[in-house]
Amino acid sequence: MKHQIKIYNTLSGKKDLLKPRKGRKVNLFVCGPTVYDYSHLGHARTYIAFDAFVKYLRATGFDVFYLQNITDLDDKIIARAREKGVAPKDWAESFIKEHLKNMKDLKIDSVNKYAKATSYIKQIISQVKRLMEKGYAYEIAGDGIYYDISKFKNYGKLAGRTALGAEDSVSRIDYSKDKKNRGDFCLWKISDSDNEPNWPSTFGKGRPGWHIEDTAITETFFGAQYDIHGGARDIIFPHHEAEIAQMEALSGKNPLVKYWMHTGFLTIEGQKMSKSLKNFITINDFLRRHPAKYLRFFVVKNLWRSPVDYSESAMIEVKSAVERIEQFLRKLKEVKAVKSGDKNLKNKFKAFKENFYKELDDDFNTPKAFAVLFDFIKETNKTLDEDKVFKKEAVEIYKFLEEINKIFGIIDFKEVSKTIPAEIRKLLKNREKFRKEQNWAKSDELRAEIERQGYIIEDTKDGAIVKKI
C-alpha cells in the first residue's frame, strides 16, 4: 500500500503532505525533559505520541533519525539541588536515570539519540558568538548576552504573537530589567559564582540560556534545516519561536523546520496538573497502579494534538478496550480448521486494513483508526462465535494485529498466549447460548461454575471476556 501521509503543521496552520527534504530520510527533533524532578503524565503524553508516530513512519518506509535533548542545566535544577545540598550535576544525573527508566518501562524505544545540553557547551558558545557578530545579540554588562527580537523581522510567525500568554512555559534566566525589549531572551548568563555550574567563554564565565541549547544540538546533528520539530503545546512560545529566531538568523535560511508538531495539553479531571492541587501524577505513580500498556492506549486513543483529560474512570474504559482486543486475539488463536467459513471475511479484512491505514495517513488520526479496528472486531466476533472463520484468515488477522502492536505497544502478547482450557471455552460457549435465549438462570449457573474453576467473566457489547483469576 502506498502511503501519502499528511500531518497538521503548526507553522502553516493546516494539514501538509509529508515530503522530507531528502527523499525518505526524516530528521526529527523533539524537546526533551528538564530533569529537576520525576517525569509526569504530561511528559508521557508527548513522548508516547511521538514514539508511536515515529514507529508508524518507519513501518511505512521512512528512515527516521529521532533526536531528543535533555535539559540537564536550568534554574530549577540549580535551585532544587541547592535546597537538597547536592551538586546540580549529580541532581540532574539522578533524574536522567529515572527518566530513561520511565521511557523503558513505557516501551518508548524509538529515540536514536538523547543529547544532554551540557555536552554541547562548545557548540552553544559558537552560536552565541556568531549571533553577536551578526548583530542579533547584545551584552548587558555583568548580566549576560541577550537576543534582540527587534532585529528578527519574522519573530512570532510560529505562534502568531510576540507576547507571553498564561499557558506559556518560561525560564527565569530570561528576566533582566536592562533588556532592550521585553521579549528579549538570554543566550548566555554571566556568572562566576562557585554555587552554580559555569563555563569559560570569550564573553565571560557563565552558562547557557534555555533556547540556545536546542539549536546548538540540532545544528550539530542536522545542520541549519531539518524536517520535523515536536514538543508540547505550552512551549510553542517563547521556546520554539526563539529557536526559529536563533537558527534562521544564523543561517539566513528559511524555514528552520518544515513541519512543527505540538501535542495537546493534558489535564487531570479537568484541572491543570499541580502539586498544590494534589493531582500531580508521575509516571512512577501511574505504573504503581496500572500496566504501561494502559497509559499507551490512553494516549493513542486520542488525537495527538487534541487536549486530553486523565481520570481513573477513563482508565476503566481503557482497560475494557484493551481487553476487548486481547480477547479477540485469543479467539483468533483458538480457531480450528472449518469446512465452511465466511467467504466475505477476506474482503472485509482487506477493507479494514485499507481504512485503518487511511486514518493514520490522515494526520495520524489514531482515534478514527481504532474506531475502524473496533468495528472490525465487532463484526468478526459474530463470525468467530459461529465458527465460520477459516484458520488461514484467522492467522493473517492475528499477524496484522501483531504488526499494529509494534507501533502502539498496547497488547501484552504473553497474556494473550495464555490458553483458556477447552472445558472453560465450552462452558463459555454454552453460557453465551443461554444469554441469547435470555435464560438468565442457566447463564448465571455457568458463570458461577466458570468462576469456581478459577476464571472470571466480563460481559461487553462485543461478547464475554474470560480471564484467569
What does the model show?
The protein is an alpha/beta fold and 469 residues long. The protein is 46% helix and 16% strand. The protein is built from 15 helices and 16 strands. The chain has helices at residues 41-59, 75-84, 88-105, 121-133, 210-222, 236-251, 283-289, 292-300, 312-333, 345-361, 366-385, 391-408, 413-416, 422-436, 440-452; strands spanning 6-9, 14-17, 25-30, 63-70, 113-116, 137-140, 144-147, 185-190, 206-208, 226-232, 257-263, 266-268, 271-272, 308-310, 455-460, 463-468. The strands form five sheets. It has a five-stranded parallel sheet with strand order 5-4-3-10-11, sandwiched between helices. It has a four-stranded antiparallel sheet with strand order 6-7-8-9. A three-stranded mixed sheet has the order 13-12-14. Helix 4 (121-133) packs across helix 5. The longest helix has 22 residues, at 312-333. The protein is elongated and about 85 Å long.
Mean pLDDT: 95
Find the count of extended strands (DSSP E, 2+ residues).
16
Order of strands across the biggest sheet? 5-4-3-10-11
Major pleated sheet: 5 strands, parallel
CA(first)-CA(last) distance: 42 Å
How large is the count of helical segments?
15
Overall geometry comes to: elongated
